[in-house]
Every structure is written in C-alpha cells, then in structure tokens.
Amino acid sequence: MELTMDQIKLIIEQGRKLSLTKDFYHNSIILIGKEKILSIQDIERLSSLGKLKLEVKEAEESIIPIQIKKTILEQILSLFSDHQYYQKMNGSKKKEISKIINNIFIPSDYLSYALHHIHHFSKKIYTHSIHVALISLTVDLAWQKRHNQGLIDGMKLEHIFYGALLHDLGYLTLPKDLSETKRKNKDFKNTKLKEHPTLGYELLMRDKMKHKYSNDILNIVLQHEERNNSTGFPMGLNGNQIDLNAQIVGLCNEFEHLLNNEITDQQKTFYDLTGYLIARKQFFNPECITVLIEEFRHLS
Q1: What gap in Å lies between CA 162 and CA 221, rounded to an integer?
Q2: What is the arithmetic mean of pLDDT over 267-272?
Q3: What span, in angstroms and rounded, lies between the C-alpha atoms of 116 and 113?
Q4: Who wins on pLDDT, 227 or 107?
Q5: According to a count of CB atoms within 10 Å of the terminal CB, is the N or C end of the chain lower?
Q6: 68: exposed, middle or buried (C-beta count within 10 Å: 0-12, 13-18, 19+)?
Q7: What is the layout of strands, in order, in the sheet containing 18-20?
Q8: Distance between CA 148 and CA 131 in Å, rounded?
Q9: Residues 57-114: pLDDT tens digits?
C-alpha cells in the first residue's frame, strides 16, 4: 500500500509496525532495507530527502514484549555511556555516534530475543558484545569516511553493529565456564571453543527466514575469529577470503579484550596496546589497525 509520510507517522505512533516493500536506495547505497521495521527517525530521514509517499506493508507481530526491547536498548545505551572510550570521546564525535546508535538500534524481534538470551546466559559476554559493537561501529564509520569520499552507508553500519552484538552467540551452546574464561586463558585447541563461530552461525541460520538477518551479519558471526594469515578458525581463511565486516569486528573484538586486560598479563598503556596490535599485523587487516589506532588515540 502507498501512504504519505504523515499517514505512516500516524500508524507508527499508534504502535503498528510497517516496513518497506523494497530496499530504499540513496546515492546508489541502500539506506533502509525492505525488512527493517520503520521508525519515526527513518520517516524523518526520508522526508528530508524529499520523499512524499512510500510503498509499505504491515510487519509481522512482535514475538517479544516491548518492555524487554525497551530494557535492552536502555542497557546498551547505559553500557555505552560507561565505556572509557565513549567517556573520553570529544563532543562532536560523541554526538555523531549517539545519533547513529539511536537511529539504527530499533531492534528486530529476533535481535532482541537473542540479546535477551545472551544477557540471561552471561552478563560478561553481554557487556563484552556491546562494547565490541561500540568499537566496531566507530571503526567502520571512520573506514567508510576514508573510502567512500565521506559518504556513509547506513545499512553497512547497521550490519556491523548487529553482527558485533551477536558475534559470540555461539557460546550460549557451550558450558558457561568455557565461555567466561579470560581470553588469555582460553585453550583454543579445545575443539568446542573453536566451534563457537560455527555454532552461532547455525543458530541464526536455523530461523533465517524469520529473523531475516543479512549475509553480512551472518558472515561476521561465522568469520570474526578468522585471521589474515590463515591461523584463525573455524575455516582457516586468509586475506580477502574474510569478509571485511568480519575483519573489522574481529580486530575490535581483540582490542576490547586488550582494554579489559583479557589478553596481556597486566594493565597496559594505550601505546602498549597499539604496539601489541602492530606487532600482530599479519593476523589483522593492517589498514583496519591504522584506522582503529587513529580513532582511539585519545585514550592515551
């Protein structure tokens, strides 16, 4: 059905859910995917681009109470504000990141469902995943500005964000003591531990038609432990065989563990952590390392 922007706004304000019937492109970039539940912010953004009407459809009913979704969003925003990187961020960057978070984090039912279960299983993994999502979002935003002549692909940011939030989902199928062990003490020769990317991927694939996660998100979950020199897992991929989004999240996952003293024996300065990453440039995308260091230099 084709509706005006005011009609769509009114329907959303009444609590009904709408989505586009096809992807919306702007400057050859998907700005809003056809399966995304439309928010007031989405409508305002499209209105600013001159859209007067949209072809929309009723979205599926929620499978998770709205209060749980609201609580998850509040928890995520709270954890963001408590993170040392966010606290030391300059005002303009903080405003930019906050705006992106509030714009893209209109959680799907299945994203909310998964995060709810992660939180119930392990607050440690939940907090880690949210911090990795913040770091990944920041790095991807800087990466896009560097490579896209300042243009930002909002859908790519959303995929990075969602993929980072779900990257350790596979740990929910493993014993809790294995999943909560510090990174530096994890024995990744343990077959079960090395299976956690595959297990998370399989959990999402099981209901792919319902949750409608993109392949970009699925690739992040499956490939975030792969390394450029083929020493990663679960498939031993190398270089360009690894999805770029997964390379970004994999690096940010390592960096978050470093910030929390999960890898080194004692707390290190930012310059120490920088040296650690540079010394391991054979494992990660060197340009991603450069972008990360530039974005987090203010932590020194």
Answers
A1: 10
A2: 78
A3: 5
A4: 227
A5: N
A6: middle
A7: 2-4, 53-58, 18-20
A8: 25
A9: 887 655 566 667 777 778 888 887 887 777 888 888 788 887 777 766 665 677 888 8
Burial class (CB within 10 angstroms; exposed 0-12, middle 13-18, buried 19+) of 25: exposed
- 100: its two tokens: 């992106």
Between helix 109-121 and helix 123-147 the angle, nearest 10°, is 130
Q: What angle do CA 168, 246, 173 make, to 5 degrees?
A: 20
State the pTM of this model: 0.77
Q: Residue 35: its pLDDT value, please?
A: 66
Q: How much of the chain, in percent, has pLDDT values that exceed 70?
A: 93
